[in-house]
């Protein structure tokens, strides 16, 4: 009986030590990282250099639809203009699935477009390929938090499951 308990404890230690935890959780999840990541997310909070950004002043909705095949469909509706943007990005796991890299899709039909960050205001020409690495701070089935660095400053996006 004690031998069986010992085997279970060793297996439990192996399973939990093999799972890399994100800085803000969860400690343990029965769902894979990909299953938790690949769904539709709505942006709820954003900050840059620790300062909150009032995202709904500029956007009436802002979504990332992350697909298993490695694409992100970003939908943005701008309040001031009433314009809607739909932009596609490629994504890939990096750093042992602790981060993701987002790269603009080369087949974009727009002349200028935004990176999928609401406070990243620099527009890029469609001939440029831009990518950005995001550290995953939290990834549960219901919420997703990423941080990235831009010019030495930290941006943070907090999403909820749509």
Tally of helical runs? 3
Largest sheet: spatial strand order: 1-3-4-5-6-9-10-11
Distance linking N and C termini = 47 Å
- At the first level of CATH, the class is Mainly Beta
Helical content class: 10-25%
Number of strands: 11
The parts where pLDDT drops under 50 for at least 5 residues are 109-113, 121-127
Beta-strand level of the residues, as a percent range? over 45%
The computed structural class is alpha+beta
Written as H for each helix and E for each strand, in order along the chain, the element string is HHEEHEEEEEEEEE
What's the gyration radius in Å?
18 Å
Form type: elongated
What CATH architecture do you see?
A: Beta Barrel
| Annotated CATH topology | Lipocalin
Biggest pleated-sheet summary:
8 strands, antiparallel, barrel
Q: On the 0-100 scale, what is the average pLDDT?
A: 79
Count of distinct structural domains: 1
What tags apply to this protein structure?
single chain; 162 residues; Lipocalin; 11 strands; elongated; alpha+beta; 46% strand; two-stranded antiparallel ribbon; eight-stranded antiparallel β-barrel
């Amino acid at each position: 009986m004690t031998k069986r308990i010992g085997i279970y404890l060793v297996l439990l230690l192996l399973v939990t030590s093999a799972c890399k935890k994100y800085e803000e959780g969860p400690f343990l999840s029965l769902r894979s990282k990909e299953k938790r990541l690949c769904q539709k997310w709505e942006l709820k909070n954003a900050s840059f250099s620790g300062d909150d950004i009032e995202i709904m002043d500029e956007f009436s909705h802002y979504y990332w639809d992350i697909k298993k095949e490695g694409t992100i469909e970003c939908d943005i509706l701008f309040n001031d203009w009433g314009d809607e943007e739909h932009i596609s990005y490629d994504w890939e796991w990096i750093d042992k699935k602790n981060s993701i890299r987002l790269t603009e899709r080369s087949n974009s039909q727009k002349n200028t477009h935004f990176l999928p960050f609401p406070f990243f205001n620099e527009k890029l020409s469609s001939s440029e390929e831009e990518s950005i690495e995001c550290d995953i701070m939290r990834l549960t089935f219901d919420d997703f938090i990423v941080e990235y660095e831009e010019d030495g400053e930290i941006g943070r996006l907090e999403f909820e499951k749509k």
